[in-house]
Amino acid sequence: MNTNPMMFSSDTDSTVSFQCQPPPSANHSTTASSSNRNPRGRPLGSKNKPKPNTMSITEPSAKIALIHVPQGHNVVESIMDFANREHVSVTILSGSGTIASVTLHHPSRDSTAFTLHGPFALVSFTGTYVYNDHYTLNTGATPPPRMAFGISLCTAHGQVFQGVVGGKVIAGKSLSLTVSTYKNLEIYKCHHEVKQDNN
Which of 58, 65, 89, 187 sits at a 20 to 30 Å CA gap from 129? Predict the structure, then answer.
């Protein structure tokens, strides 16, 4: 007796087919009518249409970069050159190497800058350079300075001192900075919540 192919769809994109035997018929006309019936299921070779990918992939707003400053070059100028070339704002995360000389000043505006000559071991270098004063100022926040850096140094005798950069920072040997770069800098105001003691 002839068999009738039946088509079924699996859970995947492939199509599964198998042969099944039709039930016994009472006469030939019934069998012929059953054999002429279109097979149920999808046609052979049909597949599910691919669904469009709706997940959007965006470029991260912050990236990490490593800046190597050659011996004798100004570290501050190297940071500015990198930021202007890449069109990004830069925050210094850490630094290592030696400093040949550094110009510092007191945070007060009326202070006079002074220069110290090394060599010094770089303990830390922090701060931010805002590219082209490009940032988003949120409610309550104050505009940041375009450039502000702090530095900590150690002498050959183990004396550690720190200050605010007020001029040139000349690199010694093998100086490198790890920085974070931002395309869209946003400035927020942090609110300090004071808990009241009811006792």
Answer: 58
